[in-house]
Every structure is written in structure tokens, then in C-alpha cells.
Amino acid sequence: MRSCYFIALKHVVVAQDLAQTILDHDSEAEVIVGRRPEDLGTTCRPRVAFIGLAPSKALEHPLVCALLRDGTRLVLLGEEAETAGEGPDWWVLPRPFTSDAVLALLERAAEERRGQDAR
What we know:
This protein is of the alpha/beta class and 119 residues long. The chain has 5 helices and 5 strands. It has helices at 12-25, 55-60, 62-69, 79-84, 99-118, and strands spanning 4-8, 30-34, 48-51, 73-76, 91-92. Helix 1 crosses helix 5. The longest helix is centred in the last third of the chain and has 20 residues, at 99-118. The two termini are 20 Å apart.
């Protein structure tokens, strides 16, 4: 099954850099890039969603809540997310991020998924 990832950031260049890092890691992946959570559409169920929102705004957003219910790993980016730090429902990708930091989060999400599948 083809992996899907979703990126919703205001800064298109940053989003494209993140998408390219994911594709360099998994060339068969589907990476959907948008500027708002609503840009996801219905074509995939993402393994990981990178969203540029503060934790409080992300957790109030209906689509983000639906992603969390479906088992998507939420990764937040931005100053407010960095200030808040990680929470039980989200991880944080601090800026400026490196390819290694992105790949570490993807591996962490894969390990988490394997742990859930083993239960």
C-alpha cells in the first residue's frame, strides 16, 4: 500500500522542501501539499500530517481532529508549536529543520504504527 503524507503550511517553499525530503525517503509515497488543512481532500489517509498551526488551533480544527481519530500522526510547525512543545496528540518539527530531523520523525511514526499493529 502506498504511503500518504499531508503538508499544510503557509510558506510554499518550506512545504516543498519538506515534501521533497519525504519523497527522497519514500519515492513511491503520495505527498499532498496545501496551505490549509481543508486542502487534503479525500484521496488518501495520511500516515503523517505536517500542519503549520498552534496546538490549540490544530486541536480545534475539525479536519485535524478527524485525522487524529483515524490514526494520523500529527506534526506541528511554527513558533507557537515550538513554544508549546510536544503534547500527547502532536509532535513538533522545530525550525530550521533538517532532512535528518524529518526522517527521524518519519521513523518514529513508523515505529509507533508498528507498535499499534502489534497490539
